[in-house]
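Blackboard transcription, Thursday session:
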Amino acid sequence: MAVVFERPKALLDVPFHYCPGCTHGIVHRLVAEAIDELGIEGRTVGIAPVGCSVMAYDYFACDMIEAAHGRAPAVATGVKRSDPDNLIVFTYQGDGDLASIGTAETVHAAARNENITIIFINNAIYGMTGGQMAPTSLPGQVTQTSPYGRDPKACGYPVKICEMLAQLEGPEYLERVTVNSVAHVRAAKKAIKKAFQNQIDGKGFSLIEVLSSCPTNWGMTPKKAMEWIDEKMIPYYPLGVYKDRSAGIGPGLGGKEDK
Amino acid sequence: MAKVTFRTDECKGCGLCIDACPKGILKLSEETINKKGHHPAECADPDACVGCASCALMCPDCIITVER
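(Written on the board underneath:)
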């Protein structure tokens, strides 16, 4: 018998600290599989964020740097520019990191079309600090700091990162995926691998937004949390490619999205 | 002929593999409790496994190996 599935080599043999059913583990694995399949482990540098995935530096076999809260794209810019032809640089950030305190770094890295890869975990809540409302929390969503549900009149509306960045001329590739079913995991893997391939090809800024679950802070079982992504998150955050400049998809590029 | 193996002591008992299995042959062990204090996932009917690796694709802790 041949092994058809095993732990990727770019993922160290260390147990994850994440809660049961947390999709961080799935996305970590997809990133590691992309690194393995592209054969870039020896020249890859990952930038870890602040949030639940702060300890991502313990899990990947490549070199890792821990950035200040939200500043991973800025650190990634510096690392990439130090050796642009050789290094492959990715950041792994949550929504409290990328879409809140790190919005400026994210937007300007995209505007500059920095040749980096960003994996953006959107679980609509602050996980590590105990389930407070995030910029990405849905209208009406109950969190620790919105016990009656997020009220857009008081708290504004969620930040849709892919839609927002697609308006910029800079970025090369923006796609929103999820990992709540086998089919979606396969699609997410394809997108993440493409985001790394774009960087190898020198095409520029690629960001993959992954709709993820937080069973603990959502107050659901892992199974119910996966269903909640289908029922609530995907209608608000539609999946798909928001920009792919090489394929002519995106605002102002004349592709199918530009109607 | 296919074989699915779990690194039992690292299982957190989330059950996502159970929902992903198209054959419905995975379950949480009722008898055993692992080092973490969870009832780990196990295969109730190894002969029925087709080796599709759906369970492994959905496992957030990457503890499943599939051979075929």
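Lecturer's comment: Chain B has two helices and four strands.
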